[in-house]
């Protein structure tokens, strides 16, 4: 699920934004305003802009992926009466491990019953 990596990247860019902000404040608080204050202000602005853009992209990707999850869950529940982790992973296009993580989180939140199957598979009853 690539959106998680994009959101992690936005956190990394936020770290660089905070670093630039600290350096900018440090350059302003000295005895004399140094020439590096303008460079630090530009650095801070660039990383703020990059952080916001990447965060927006990551949240959009997350939203579309969760829509995909919901439609797959609705289809599998209507068709089979349960959600099978392997079938869910194939229909959404993610790994079985990620599918189990997603379905386990939804099972706790929505109070679904889970049945362990062979081969690292699980069946969820909504």
Automatic annotation (TrEMBL):
Keywords: Membrane, Transmembrane, Transmembrane helix. The chain crosses the membrane at residues 5-25, 37-59. It comes from the Bacteria. This is Uncharacterized protein. It comes from Candidatus Kapaibacterium thiocyanatum. The lineage of its organism: Bacteria, Pseudomonadati, Candidatus Kapaibacteriota, Candidatus Kapaibacteriia, Candidatus Kapaibacteriales.
């Amino acid at each position: 699920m690539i959106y998680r990596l994009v959101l992690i990247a936005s956190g990394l860019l936020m770290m660089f934004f905070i670093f630039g902000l600290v350096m900018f404040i440090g350059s302003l608080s000295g005895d004399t305003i140094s020439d590096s204050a303008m460079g630090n202000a530009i650095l801070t602005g660039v990383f703020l802009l990059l952080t916001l853009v990447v965060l927006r992209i990551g949240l959009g990707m997350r939203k579309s992926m969760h829509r995909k999850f919901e439609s797959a869950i609705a289809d599998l529940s209507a068709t089979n009466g349960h959600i099978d982790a392997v079938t869910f992973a194939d229909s959404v296009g993610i790994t079985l491990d990620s599918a189990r993580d997603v379905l386990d989180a939804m099972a706790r939140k929505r109070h679904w019953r889970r049945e362990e199957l062979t081969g690292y598979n699980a069946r969820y009853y909504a």
